[in-house]
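lol ok so funny story. i was supposed to be doing the assay writeup but got distracted and ended up predicting the structure for this chain instead. priorities right. anyway since i did it might as well share w the group, maybe its usefull for someone
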Amino acid sequence: MKLESRVRRKGLRSLLLAGFSMPWLFSGVALAQRMNSGRLLSLNEMVQPIVKGAILLNKDLQIEAPLLADNGSLVPIQIQVQSPMSEQDHVTQIYLLSQRNPVTQMAVFQLGPWNGRAEVSTRVRLAGTQEVIALARLSNGEFRYKQMEIIVTESACVDAS
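and the output, tada:
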């Protein structure tokens, strides 16, 4: 029996509930969310969709995180960018990027001169040992970055969650 007639007869919902696998139906979902299937991305592959050719410097940014994370579900990370945070010279965004997670962009923080300090702290999920990139966009259009390898003994987010 052809697939199309089976879908018409039983209905798409009942086939999905019965566990019928249709990868062709959801093939565009992973691309729309920029998901990577565990493939390790290069620094250039991670930052170029955001930077788009702007000046990128490896300076004035610090990442504080454990070198060894026992559980990839709760990895604390703190990012600090050296900036005067004045009206003319301040950090506008801080991005947290993952080399291996299903979705590369883990977080984006919006900042401005009202923050006083360019500093954020959060917890992230990591799908195994990987490089984590902190990327800061400045008000003058420049970008600063820092990368850090975090060794994860028990992976998280292996199911794209």
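Confidence is low (pLDDT under 50) at residues 12-35. Helices lie at 3-10, 12-17, 27-32, 43-51.
back to the writeup now i swear
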